[in-house]
Amino acid sequence: MVIDIKMKKLMFCIGTRPEAIKLAPLIWAAQGQNFNVCIVTSGQHKEMLDPFLQFFKLKVNHSLDVLKPNQSLSDLTASILTKMQMIMQIEKPDYVFVQGDTTTTFTSALAAFYEKIPVAHIEAGLRTHDRYSPFPEEINRKLVTQIAEYFFTPTEESKKNLENEGIKKNVWFTGNTGIDALRLATEILMDKGALHPPSLEAHARKMILVTCHRRENHGAPLLNICDAIIRIVHQHKDVDVVFPVHLNPNVQSVVKLKLGNHPQIRLEKPLNYPDFVSLMYQSTLLLTDSGGVQEEAPYFKKPIFVMRESTERPEGVSAGVAALVGSDTDAIVNAVNLALTDQGYYQSFQKAVSPYGDGYASQKILSALFS
Ligand code: UD1
Ligand code: UDP
Predict the structure, then answer these.
(1) Does one domain contain both 362 and 328?
(2) Which ligand is nearest to the CA of 101?
(3) Active-site position among 213, 214, 308, 313
(4) Do residues 348 and 320 make contact, with C-beta atoms less than 8 angstroms apart?
(5) Ligand 1 atom showing the smallest separation from residue 70 Cα
(6) Active-site residue flag, 65
(7) Can you give the pTM of this predicted structure?
(8) What separation in Å is there between the alpha carbon of 26 and the centre of ligand 2?
(9) Could you tell me the CATH number of the domain that includes residue 324?
(10) Ligand 1 centroid vs 221 CA: distance in angstroms?
């Protein structure tokens, strides 16, 4: 008897906003090929996730309700692990797909392992080689590497990282599914006429788009970053800063206090994906500690300055599409000053080629796994 592979049940575990964005195109591709798809959200993010599920029209089969304000990593880990395992016992999927390196990613992979269900890891092989940065994501992704059976790497470099750790079987370099999502969103927004490039007029105002949420930046580094933003707008009266502030209370409290009442600084709630994509397109440059935003800005040829001490996306820095500036106030101000005043430096980011894929990773992942 020939078993129809399309009868297989694929479970997608989603916890945070980047997981929704980066798994959505893969889920669409699987649904397009009539796989039996089951979507579980852990509830790690709630307000920050729901708009994405709506935008991508993802119909969730199970929502676990684990979000508590400022809860500890161990509470979150224990809660998702127990509930995910229960759902897996009910649904009995043939494959579990996890993406990236969040607490949901790691705990869902572990729950699947306890149920002896093979795990496919999307965006595998990223490393900073610093166990505390990003914290706890570097260790989360290394643990998922031990658990998973199928590995889909976004870049050649991430594939090499796995090879260096002895992972050579069932590893495919596909590009990043986040670029698939961005390509699709851009097409939709272009059709609606909703993407507006920055004005080229000599006296037009410039816009810096900022995001910041990483745990390593909480406390003093975030204060330094806020100081840098204040200095930048003081030095450049033609620059506005737009900063959608992550719902993490450690970020909210500091950013609102430091940047809350400045005429050139607009603090926003976390934005829905299409609104954020439109702002990226409109921006002059970006300041971020986000992983996903590091990959997306080069798609629009926008210089991006990464406010972290290390990045698991060094290929972007080597390619020249991103620069690592850390969280030191002077370093951030100097880099932004240079980009705003030196056209050659600004254009060097635009001339560089993004290493994050062509926007067709999802199809490659399904073909690799099922053909
Ligand atoms: C988590 C991921 C990080 C990812 C980021 C994406 C872990 C360990 N970290 O960051 O890798 O880059 O998500 O944004 O998994 N909150 C709400 N509503 C929401 C979302 C968050 O109130 O919709 C508040 C809660 O108080 C929550 C806090 O923000 O406790 C932090 O959320 P959490 O998922 O722990 O975020 P991070 O660990 O900062
Ligand atoms: N993003 C968004 N709205 C915002 C900020 C970010 O839609 O207000 C998107 C962004 O385009 C990217 C993703 O969220 O796809 C990145 O999420 P985040 O920075 O929270 O997580 P990370 O990528 O660092 O894990």
Answers:
(1) no
(2) 1
(3) 213
(4) yes
(5) 30
(6) no
(7) 0.97
(8) 18
(9) 3.40.50.2000
(10) 18
Phi, psi (rounded to 5 degrees) for 5: -60, -30
From 105, 186, 216, 276, the mutation candidate for ligand 2 (largest count of ligand atoms within 8 A of CB) is: 276
Residue to mutate (ligand 1; options 67, 139, 290; most atoms within 8 A of CB): 67
Q: What is the DSSP string of 255-317?
A: HHHHHTT-TTEEEEPPPPHHHHHHHHHH-SEEEE--HHHHHHGGGGT--EEE-SS--S-HHHH
What ranges in the chain are assigned the alpha helix state H? 17-32, 50-55, 73-91, 103-114, 137-147, 156-164, 177-191, 220-235, 249-259, 273-282, 291-296, 314-319, 329-341, 343-351, 361-370
Model pLDDT for residues 255-265, shown as the tens digit of each residue? 999 999 999 99
Task: Please report, for residues 3, 12, 108, 117, 248, the alpha-carbon distance to residue 92 in angstroms, rounded to integers and kept in the order given.
Answer: 17, 12, 14, 8, 34
The model's pLDDT over 11-31, given as tens digits with 9 standing for 90+, comes to: 999 999 999 999 999 999 999
Q: How far is the CA of 188 from the centre of ligand 1 (A)?
A: 28
Residue whose CA is at the smallest distance from ligand 1 atom 25: 69
User: Is 171 in the same domain as 46?
Assistant: yes
The mean pLDDT value for 285-305 works out to: 98
The pLDDT tens digits for 210-237 are 999 999 999 999 999 999 999 999 999 9
Q: Are residues 346 and 366 in the same domain?
A: no
Q: Which amino acid is at 201?
A: E
* Protein residue with its CA nearest to atom 6 in ligand 2: 276
Which domain range does residue 13 map to?
5-176+358-370
For residue 201, tell me if it sits in a domain.
Answer: no
Residue 3 has pLDDT above 60, yes or no: no
The one catalytic residue in 236, 246, 308, 313 is 246
